[in-house]
Amino acid sequence: QVQLVESGGGLVQAGGSLRLSCDASGRTFSGYAMGWFRQAPGKEREFVAGVRWIGGTIYYADSVKGRFTISSDNAKNTVVLQMNSLKPEDTAVYYCAAAPVGTAQSMGVIPQRLIEYWGQGTQVTVSS
């Protein structure tokens, strides 16, 4: 049984930092890209960042470039999203995801119905 389990969400003031972790289990993810999406209240779920499991290519949404950093630890089957300089508009439920695509950029452009695995989500709230 494949599981993606997120942790690390919470409440932080604007300008602060949070670190989200995603523990992946149940299969090998070679050939996959792993990443993070988010969904704010009343809005559609959107891509945030992705990393190819093997090869490590990385891709970010324009809204988080320069503030967020995604990384993977293949030995621990973990994907981390370090979020700095947080803004109130970053408030959302953040989801870990895995897709059988060749590049991290593909994860940001494919229809979300093609994302094969999703975590349960973790809430991030940024107060002004």
Describe the structure.
- This protein has about 130 residues and is mostly beta strands.
- About 5% of the residues lie in helices and about 50% in strands.
- Strands 2, 4, 5, 6, 9, 10 and 11 form a seven-stranded mixed sheet that branches. It has a four-stranded antiparallel sheet with strand order 1-3-8-7, with no helix packed on it.
- The longest helix has 6 residues, at about 105-110.
- It has one helix spanning about 105-110, and strands spanning about 5, 10-15, 20-25, 35-40, 45-50, 60, 70-75, 80-85, 90-100, 115-120, 120-125.
Provide tags for this entry.
4-stranded antiparallel β-sheet; 128 residues
CA radius of gyration: 13 Å
How much of the sequence lies in strands comes to over 45%
Determine the number of helices (DSSP H or I, runs of at least 4 residues). 1
Average pLDDT reading: 95
Low-pLDDT segments, ≥5 res? none
- The counted number of beta strands is 11
Order of helices and strands: EEEEEEEEEHEE
Biggest sheet overview? 7 strands, mixed
Q: Based on helices, strands and strand pairing, what is the structural class? A: mainly beta
Range of helix content: under 10%
How far from one another are the termini?
Answer: 40 Å
Shape: globular
